[in-house]
Design brief:
The chain has 28 helices and 20 strands. The protein is α+β, with helices and mostly antiparallel strands and 712 residues long. It is elongated, with a radius of gyration of 49 Å.
Length: 712
C-alpha cells in the first residue's frame, strides 16, 4: 500500500470517523499519525483531525478505507493566463496570510489535535486579521488541494447562479424605466409558479410544433387561452392588464425548456437526424480500407444541353451518376445520360466503375493511361439509397458480385461522401457552363438558361471527366488522419495516392472484376438483327472480323435475317457487344462506315434521330397533294368506266385485233405524222417559226441493229 500526501480516501464502516471522503493533509512519521480533513462536511471552518498510522493501515487492509477522487469546482480548473488580475490579486493576498502557518507542521498537528490553539490567535493579531477569517482560509486551502489556486474567489456562484429565486411581494429584476417623464409605465408583473405552468403548457401547445410558430405568436395565443378574463376586465376599467410581458414569457420559456428540446420539438425527427444532430462519428469508423464501401447516387446536372446533331434542339438537363469509394474519397466511376435516375442508368455507372477507364475516356477525347484512373474493381459493399437499386433486377445482377446496403428513406447524410462530390462538381465545373441553372438560384425576371444552352452531352461529359481526374489528384486534409501509410511513405493525402498505396500494401477489400461477367450482367441487354448489311441496331450497322469470316451477312441475305442477343454501352455508338453464338461469349463489333454520321456520338443520338423521324411522320402522314391525286384518279376511273359502258358491245377478239395498225392511226391522229419523210422536211422548211411552235415532227428512224444469232 502507498500512502501519499494530499490523496483522497473514502471511509465506510469505520469506528474512527463518519463515512465520507477524506483528504490526507500530512503524514507525521515522528508521531506515526495521519492528518485527515473531511471533504463531505461543507462547513467553511471544518478542522482536520489525526489518527494513528497503524489504525489507518488496518482500515485499508480491511477495505474500510478505499482510495477515491474528489472533483474540484469548475472555477478552479482554469489556466493562469485566463484569470483576471483582480482575482489573482485576491488569491495571492489570501495565500500570503496563511503561507507561514500552513508550512509549519507543528501548527498543523496542534490544530488537528488540540481544541484551543493559542498560536492561531496570536498570529491573527499579528497579521491584523480576524481569527475566523483565517480559519475559513485554512479550511478552503486544505479542502481544495493545498495549493494557492484553492484560494481563488468563487465569484462564479455569486447571485445564486443556477437556482430559481422564490417570488415575493417585490418583483425580481430591474424595474421598468420610462424613456421620458411624461409617460408612466405599468407596474411590473410578478411571475408565480402558476404562471410558469401556463408558460409550459403554451409552449408545448404552440411553439414546440412543426408549424414553427414564432415565440411572439405563441405569447399572444397564451394570453388568449389563459389571461383572457384579465384582459377584458382591464380593458373595461381602462387600465393596463396585469399579465406577463413577452420578455418574461421568453425568459422563463428558455429556463423551463432546454435548447435541445426547442430544436427537437420544432422539426421532424428526420430533419433532426439529417441537419441538426451532432456529428460525432466518421464515415471511415468501420473501416479505412479502400473497397469496403462504394457509394452510388444520382443528381440532375445544373445545366441545359443541346443535341449533337442539331444545336437548335435543347434536350434539357442530363442526369449524373457518381460512384465513390468512401475510405479514399476516390471517384471510381461515373455516367452522364439523358435518362432519369433509374436502373438503366445506374447499371451503366456501375459497369464503368468495374471496368478499366482508358477506352471510355478515349471515346470522349480524353487520352489517359489506366494508371491515371486505376479503378476497375468490385467493392465488398455497395451503399445506395432506397430507390432504383431496391428492385429485383439490381439484386439479381449485383448480389453474386457484391453486397447491397440501402440507406433509410430521406437520409442522404448516410451517404454524405457522394453527396458532397456533387456539390464539388457543381461549384468547380457545371456552374461555369453557359445554360447553367446555378442550382436553382435564378433571380426572377432573369434570362432563361435554356436560351444560353450551347454544350452537347459529349462536351459536358468530357469536362466532368477532367474534373473527376483533378478531384482524384486533389489534397484532402481528412485523408492524412485516416491511415498512417501516407505519412510513412511521404505521400500527399490525395485520393489516388491513398488508393494506390493501400493496394500496393495489399490493405484493401477490393475484388478483381471479370470484364465478360460485368458486360453480361450490367450493360443494358438489347436484341439486334443480323441482316445482309451487317448487325442492325436502332438504325445503326455494326460488324466484326468473325462476321466477315463466317460470311453471316451473305447468309442473312439468302436465308433471311435473325435476332441476336447484345449489350450496348450508352456512352458511345462506336461499338456494341454481340453474342454471335449462344454457346460463346460477347464479341466486340464496331460501327460500319455506312453509319459514320453517328461516329463518336452517344447512343441517345440514334434515339433522337428515331424520335425526330417519327415526329416528321406524325407531322405529315400523307401529303395534301396525294389526297387530291387520289380523288382525281377515282373520278377518272369512274368516267372511264362510264365511257366503256356506253361504247358498243364488241367481243374481246375484236378489241385485240389489228393493234399495230391502230397504234399507227393513233399516232397520225395525235401527232400529225406524215408518211414520207421528204414531205415532212419540206413542209417543215416552208413553215414559219410561228407555225413550228406547237407542232410535233417525227425524226427519221435509224436502221435496226443486228443481234447475235440473227441471219443477215
Amino acid at each position: 500500500m502507498q500512502l501519499h500526501r494530499n490523496s483522497v480516501w473514502e471511509l465506510t464502516g469505520s469506528d474512527l470517523a463518519e463515512d465520507g471522503l477524506y483528504r490526507v493533509l500530512d503524514i507525521m512519521q515522528d508521531v506515526a499519525s495521519v492528518i485527515l480533513l473531511c471533504l463531505s462536511n461543507e462547513s467553511v471552518t471544518s478542522r482536520p483531525f489525526a489518527i494513528s498510522m497503524e489504525a489507518f493501515i488496518e482500515h485499508v487492509k480491511s477495505k474500510k478505507a478505499k482510495k477515491s477522487e474528489f472533483t474540484l469546482p469548475t472555477y478552479l480548473l482554469v489556466a493562469e493566463e485566463n484569470i483576471s488580475e483582480e482575482h489573482i490579486a485576491r488569491r495571492d493576498k489570501n495565500y500570503g496570510l496563511i503561507e507561514s502557518i500552513v508550512s509549519d507542521r507543528a501548527f498543523v498537528f496542534d490544530y488537528a489535535t488540540k481544541k484551543r490553539v493559542p498560536h492561531l490567535a496570536e498570529y491573527a493579531i499579528k497579521a491584523g486579521v480576524d481569527r475566523k477569517a483565517l480559519s475559513r482560509l485554512l479550511s478552503q486551502y486544505w479542502r481544495y488541494g493545498q495549493d494557492k489556486m484553492a484560494l481563488l474567489p468563487a465569484f462564479s456562484k455569486s447571485g445564486g447562479f443556477g437556482k430559481d429565486r422564490k417570488p415575493t411581494d417585490k418583483p425580481l429584476g430591474a424595474p421598468k424605466q420610462p424613456r421620458t417623464l411624461a409617460v408612466q409605465r405599468a407596474a411590473k408583473y410578478i411571475i408565480t409558479d402558476i404562471d410558469k405552468s401556463k408558460f409550459k403548457k403554451a409552449v408545448k401547445k404552440y411553439y414546440l410544433k412543426q408549424t414553427r410558430l414564432t415565440l411572439s405568436k405563441t405569447y399572444k395565443n397564451m394570453l388568449i387561452d389563459s389571461y383572457a378574463d384579465e384582459v377584458r376586465i382591464a380593458n373595461a376599467c381602462g387600465k393596463p392588464p396585469a399579465v406577463p410581458t413577452l420578455k418574461q414569457f421568453s425568459y422563463w420559456s428558455k429556463k423551463i425548456f432546454s435548447k435541445d428540446e426547442f430544436i427537437k420539438g420544432r422539426i421532424t425527427e428526420n430533419d433532426h437526424l439529417r441537419n441538426k444532430r451532432g456529428l460525432l462519428g466518421s464515415v471511415i469508423q468501420d473501416s479505412y480500407l479502400p473497397g469496403t464501401h462504394f457509394e452510388i447516387d444520382a443528381t440532375v446536372a445544373d445545366v441545359h444541353i443541346v443535341s449533337d446533331l442539331g444545336s437548335q434542339h435543347v434536350l434539357g438537363r442530363p442526369t449524373i451518376y457518381i460512384v465513390i469509394d468512401r475510405a479514399s474519397r476516390m471517384i471510381v466511376g461515373m455516367h452522364v445520360s439523358l435518362y432519369h435516375a433509374s436502373w438503366r442508368a445506374a447499371r451503366q455507372a456501375l459497369s464503368n466503375s468495374f471496368l478499366p477507364k482508358s477506352r471510355y475516356c478515349k471515346e470522349l477525347g480524353v487520352n489517359i493511361d489506366d494508371s491515371e484512373w486505376p479503378c476497375s474493381h468490385i467493392p465488398k459493399e455497395l451503399v445506395c439509397d432506397n430507390g432504383e437499386m431496391i428492385g429485383l433486377q439490381p439484386k439479381k445482377a449485383l448480389n453474386p458480385m457484391t453486397k447491397l446496403s440501402f440507406t433509410p428513406p430521406y437520409r442522404p447524410d448516410c451517404k454524405g461522401v457522394v453527396e458532397k462530390r456533387f456539390d464539388i462538381l457543381n461549384k468547380e465545373v457545371i456552374h461555369e457552363f453557359l445554360g447553367t441553372t446555378k442550382g436553382g438560384n435564378i433571380v426572377r425576371g432573369s434570362r432563361d438558361p435554356r436560351k444560353d444552352a450551347i454544350y452537347t452531352l459529349k462536351e459536358v461529359t468530357t469536362e466532368i471527366i477532367k474534373a473527376i481526374l483533378e478531384h482524384n489528384r486533389s489534397i484532402f486534409d481528412d485523408l492524412a488522419f485516416s491511415s498512417p501509410l501516407l505519412v510513412e511513405h511521404d505521400l500527399s493525402p490525395t485520393p489516388i495516392n491513398y488508393w494506390k498505396i493501400h493496394l500496393g500494401k495489399h490493405k484493401h477489400e477490393l475484388q478483381a472484376a471479370l470484364p465478360d461477367d460485368v458486360i453480361a450482367r450490367l450493360l443494358p441487354p438489347v436484341e439486334v438483327s443480323m441482316t445482309r448489311s451487317g448487325i442492325h441496331f436502332n438504325g445503326l450497322y455494326y460488324s466484326c472480323s468473325e462476321v466477315e469470316e463466317r460470311n453471316l451477312a451473305s447468309v442473312a441475305r439468302s436465308s433471311g435475317q435473325w435476332r441476336l442477343e447484345a449489350r450496348i454501352d450508352e456512352n458511345t455508338t462506336n461499338y456494341i457487344y454481340v453474342r454471335l453464338d449462344k454457346n460463346h461469349g460477347f464479341t466486340l463489333c464496331h460501327l460500319l462506315p455506312r453509319s459514320r454520321m453517328f461516329k463518336d456520338k452517344f447512343m441517345y443520338e440514334s434515339d433522337f434521330i428515331q424520335d425526330w423521324l417519327d415526329s416528321k411522320k406524325e407531322l405529315s402522314p400523307i401529303s395534301v397533294e396525294s389526297i387530291d391525286d387520289h380523288q382525281n384518279r377515282q373520278k377518272m376511273t369512274k368516267n372511264a368506266k362510264e365511257r366503256s359502258k356506253n361504247s358498243e358491245k364488241i367481243s374481246f377478239a375484236e378489241k385485240t385485233q389489228n393493234i399495230r395498225q391502230r397504234r399507227k392511226d393513233e399516232l397520225k391522229a395525235t401527232t400529225n405524222m406524215l408518211e414520207q419523210n421528204t414531205e415532212s422536211i419540206e413542209t417543215f422548211d416552208s413553215m414559219s417559226s410561228n407555225e413550228i411552235v406547237g407542232k410535233v415532227v417525227s425524226l427519221p428512224v435509224g436502221r435496226k441493229r443486228k443481234t447475235k444469232g440473227t441471219p443477215s
